[in-house]
Write a sequence for this structure.
């Protein structure tokens, strides 16, 4: 039997070194520099009057002041390849199952989150439509074109889900409603369900309700930081950004009331200075509320205020991935697990044989997110290589193969069982 212990510091000491996780003191973002007046708020883009011309591929440096939501949205490189808008191939996967859309404006997101490629401070040197976000480019495409392509053959669509990502902008709510309505006017939300990745800072409970009324199926809150201290340092006062932990939780609880159990959740980035115990306690809290956690491994996004910091060590990430899967899908509770003095998982709270079976199945190490049509614990949103390069995969956008499982076991330091 395992000993039940839910506080870091009281369990058996681990022999790991401190270098196998990202501690709080080492994960301090750079301070944002001052943006020259002529670059603020997309001013130099809006000084032009060049009409948009269909699909816009990032790095064209083509100033397009009218390229804005709701007429335009940006979409992930993976979605653009799957939709046939861009050429290219992805390692290990033929397509993505989630059509990830992002609202777009020449003045961009008005928040300044330290880990994010879309953050406001980047207006000093890169136009919004040209910024990298979760490691990839996001081409801008007329929303009408996207709807037209998908509506032509909804039944045969590779997409299991569509997701609208809001940003911090005064028009974000209104334009989310319009984009959502453009979609549901032509595409059956039962055939391709819709998720909202919200930005609570400017939202009200009525806004949450309206997304539900317009046909959204799942509402998620991009909490991203696992603790109030990490949140404030990376998304709040620490980087001159407007977000507040309390407001994010207010909207998360509104989503629980309005969307109901199994239809709301939170994004969490692992490795920004929280402990493994912190993040798993949060995962448990979400499960107890009836929600899910969607996890990302921290990766130092180029051009962000954290691009000088280390990616989350793979052993830290794998421990959290595995423990999170057990809490979310196998009914294990965080208080059955044990943690060392630094908050690292030392015992997953289940027997070795069962743990081994979960590891070998591999689903725990796939990208987590809103479900698709295969099974509840396999995410439609596979975000290929959004949190790592293909050479050192963090979240597997495909079913891990035997050689991947061997690597995962080495990272976890859990050898295969010999019967
Ligand atoms: S609010 Fe979202 S898009 Fe804007 S900077 Fe923060 S994480 Fe990036």
């Amino acid at each position: 039997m395992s000993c039940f212990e839910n506080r870091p510091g009281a369990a058996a000491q681990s022999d790991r070194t401190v270098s196998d996780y990202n501690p709080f003191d080492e994960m301090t973002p750079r301070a944002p520099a001052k943006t020259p007046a002529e670059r603020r708020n997309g001013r130099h883009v809006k000084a032009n009057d060049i009409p948009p011309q269909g699909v816009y591929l990032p790095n064209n440096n083509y100033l397009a002041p009218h390229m804005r939501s709701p007429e335009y949205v940006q979409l992930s490189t993976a979605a653009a390849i799957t939709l046939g808008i861009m050429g290219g191939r992805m390692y290990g996967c033929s397509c993505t199952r989630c059509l990830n859309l992002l609202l777009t404006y020449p003045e961009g997101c008005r928040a300044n989150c330290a880990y994010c490629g879309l953050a406001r401070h980047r207006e000093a040197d890169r136009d919004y439509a040209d910024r990298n976000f979760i490691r990839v480019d996001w081409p801008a495409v007329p929303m009408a074109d996207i709807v037209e392509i998908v509506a032509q053959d909804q039944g045969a669509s590779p997409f299991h889900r569509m997701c609208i990502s809001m940003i911090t902008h005064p028009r974000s709510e209104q334009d989310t409603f319009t984009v959502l309505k453009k979609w549901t006017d032509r595409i059956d939300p039962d055939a391709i369900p819709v998720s909202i990745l919200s930005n609570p800072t400017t939202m009200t409970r009525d806004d949450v309700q309206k997304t539900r009324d317009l046909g959204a199926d799942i509402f998620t809150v991009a909490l991203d930081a696992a603790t109030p201290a990490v949140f404030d340092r990376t998304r709040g006062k620490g980087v001159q950004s407007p977000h507040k932990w309390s407001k994010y939780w207010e909207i998360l609880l509104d989503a629980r009331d309005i969307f109901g159990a199994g239809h709301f959740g939170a994004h969490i980035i692992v490795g920004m200075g929280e402990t493994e115990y912190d993040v798993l306690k949060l995962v448990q809290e979400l499960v107890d509320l009836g929600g899910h956690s969607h996890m990302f491994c921290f990766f130092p996004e180029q051009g962000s205020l954290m691009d000088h910091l280390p990616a989350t060590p793979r052993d830290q990430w794998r421990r959290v991935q595995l423990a999170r899967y057990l809490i979310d899908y196998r009914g294990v509770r965080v208080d059955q697990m044990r943690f060392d003095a630094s908050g690292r998982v030392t015992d997953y709270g289940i027997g070795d044989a069962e743990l081994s079976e979960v590891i070998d199945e591999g689903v725990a190490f796939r990208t987590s997110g809103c479900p698709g049509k295969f099974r509840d614990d396999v995410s439609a949103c596979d975000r290929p290589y959004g949190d790592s390069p293909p050479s050192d995969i963090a979240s597997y956008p495909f079913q891990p193969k035997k050689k991947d499982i061997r690597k995962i076991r080495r990272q976890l330091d859990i050898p295969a069982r010999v019967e």
